[in-house]
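sorry for the late reply, my laptop died twice this morning and i had to redo everyting from scratch. anyway the thing you sent over, i finally got around to it. pasting the sequence first so we're on the same page, its 227 residues, then the predicted structure underneath. double check i copied it right bc i was rushing
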Amino acid sequence: MKKFSGIIWGIVLITVGILFAGKSLHLFDFDIFFDGWWTLFIIIPSFIGLITDKDKSGSLIGLTAGVLLLLACQKVIAFDLVWKLLVTAIIIIIGFSLLFKSIFNKNICGGVKKSSNKIGKDDTITAIFSSQDLNADGQEFNGTELTAIFGGIDLDLRDAKIKDGATINATAIFGGIDIKVSDDVEIVLKSDSVFGGADNTKSDSKKDKKNRLYINATCIFGGLEIK
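ok and here's the structure:
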């Protein structure tokens, strides 16, 4: 998928280069700084993410926001209408995302139904308008899926036996996720964010690191922090 993403970005850059070359040679003319040109920095990455990303919710919301802002800059719609439409679109997209996840992933709500705060192998944890405090003390951790929507998840892995190469897929939509790990774990973080972000506060030094933990974060009006 990374290779496919590189191909798409390559096509985009080649196209931009051809356009600039054509303008320089007076083959055709266009205004580079048209009204709302800056929205392309939202629209293009979101469009590419819509094609390449496994979880397309963040890219779809980003694309919707970019298009609405571009229409407002072009005076097609009023700016005060943008935020009303965007909030509506976000609610609908989240709704569809939850619907399809519920259909195709029967275990998505497994974490909510657990009465224990322990997390076991292959558990998936979801917090919707709620909070989850979990730990894997003394257990082998092979990875999990975390989803916080208008809620929060606190996952403590400091005393867990993290398997080298374990992966966490984390999604925070109007919510927050905190992941605590010991100092001997190397973190490899990949983040796709729209009006949100993921932050790794652990030392990036690879010295004395025993295992590697991969974290794929999607943050939409939300955040993820690794402590």
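The first strand starts at residue 124 and ends at 128.
thats about all i looked at so far, will dig more tmrw
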